[in-house]
Specification:
The chain has 3 helices and 7 strands. With 138 residues, the chain is of the alpha+beta class. The chain has one domain. The protein is globular and about 50 Å long. The relative contact order is 0.23.
């Protein structure tokens, strides 16, 4: 995770449960429109593991294990919270009942200058930004 803007408690910075990655993979499910970890496991972890607020300055990077329990709260402040998040996990650590097959698709390597020649209007019309096209929500 790379912070593009300030991330702090008032604007809902990321929170992690220190050491929770040692619990192994925790099942996730829907709570309304959000996907989240099993709350019984989260509440049990919070009994013995500290909750850490990850306050970041623009440009700070946070690297953590894919099984680390993490969350953020709604940004109710006047200040935006933007970040770039890339997730990587071993194929042996797939979620139970994973329906997406995106993990089977290799990442295409492009030349560094590809970012400089990319058309800016492409993102505005990108189908992957539409919630109804997100395979994780199906």
């Amino acid at each position: 995770m790379i912070a593009l803007t300030h991330a702090n408690k008032p604007n809902g910075c990321l929170q992690v449960i220190k050491g929770s990655h040692k619990l192994g993979r925790v099942n996730h499910g829907f709570a309304g429109e959000q996907v989240g970890a099993d709350m019984t496991m989260v509440n049990n972890a919070l009994q013995t593991m500290p909750l850490i607020y990850c306050e970041l300055e623009p440009g700070d990077a946070l690297i953590f294990h894919s099984n680390l329990l993490h969350r953020s709260e709604a940004n109710l402040s006047e200040h935006p919270r933007w970040s770039i998040i890339s997730c990587y996990s071993s194929q042996s650590n797939l979620a139970y009942n994973e329906t997406s097959t995106s993990w089977k698709t290799p990442v295409d390597v492009v030349p560094d200058e590809a970012l400089l020649t990319w058309e800016t209007d492409t993102l505005a019309n990108a189908d992957f930004l539409k919630k109804e096209n997100d395979p994780a929500l199906k």
